[in-house]
Amino acid sequence: APAEGARARAQAERQRAVAAALPGGAPEVLFLDEARGVLAMDYADGPVLSALWPVLSGRERLARLEEAGRWLAAFHGTTARSHPFRPKGQIAWLHRLFDWHAEGTRAFPEVEAFRSDVAGMEIMAREVRGTPARRAVTHRDLHLSNIVATQGGLVGLDFENAKEDEPLRDLVWLLIDAMVLAPEDDDPAPLAAALARGYGPTGTTPEALLFLQRLFALGIWAATPAAPSRRQAARYLAARRIMAVKDKLFAP
Q1: Does pTM top 0.90 for this prediction?
Q2: What is the DSSP letter of 165?
Q3: ∠188-205-250 over CA atoms, to 5°?
Q4: Are the C-beta atoms of 39 and 160 separated by less than 8 Å?
Q5: Cβ–Cβ contacts within 10 Å for residue 142, how many?
Q6: Do 173 and 42 touch, CB atoms closer than 8 A?
Q7: CA torsion, ordered 114, 118, 124, 129, to nearest 10 deg
Q8: What angle do CA 189, 195, 200 make, to 5 degrees?
Q9: pLDDT per residue over 68-77, tens digit each?
Q10: At residue 183, does pLDDT exceed 80?
Q11: Torsion of Cα atoms, 98 then 100 then 105 then 111, to 10°
Q12: CA 179/CA 174 separation, integer angstroms
């Protein structure tokens, strides 16, 4: 749309940057025609993983997740850097969610259970503050429909974010999408283990990993509306299952 010109330019710029940093892992931009509202990219010849998921066996899904983990590690690796973990802003964000719920601008289910989990996160935050961790420019909307299975390997789509974040966001979102598209795979541990085998070390301490996987599960929980769609309800249930896991799901 004409009003989206600035966003289109930013999206094309980010796509070019990812394609240059990750050859073969993201389509190259052919052109951006702002007057016609058209962004053209190389064609990624293959199905998206979400289309494959219902017809894959359990073993095949794990193999695809391991492959997705390798692709994601390569993507994060183009911008990754070490840093001391600073959870203060993340705790403040969780408290803003309560404020929005109280104001009625964001109503989400089981708010008292959510509040109890956040109290536990505050205790964890004091223990993990300053520990070794890693940041990178993340995808921020990673799901199985944004990964194409081509003959030459996996190709990622829909790059727009250019800000640093915790890489666990992308891992947890991808894990939740895998759980949602195969409801029989309701145990996150085997799926996460496959992702972790492909991704490898996260450069983050075990305690901070547990904090982050719960943080991003809480984000999915808080995004669940009062009258959720079937998909939103499934994402909420998957997030609650991740919250129930007592140990880290990914490798330090």
Answers
A1: yes
A2: E
A3: 20
A4: no
A5: 24
A6: no
A7: 140
A8: 115
A9: 999 999 999 9
A10: no
A11: 0
A12: 9
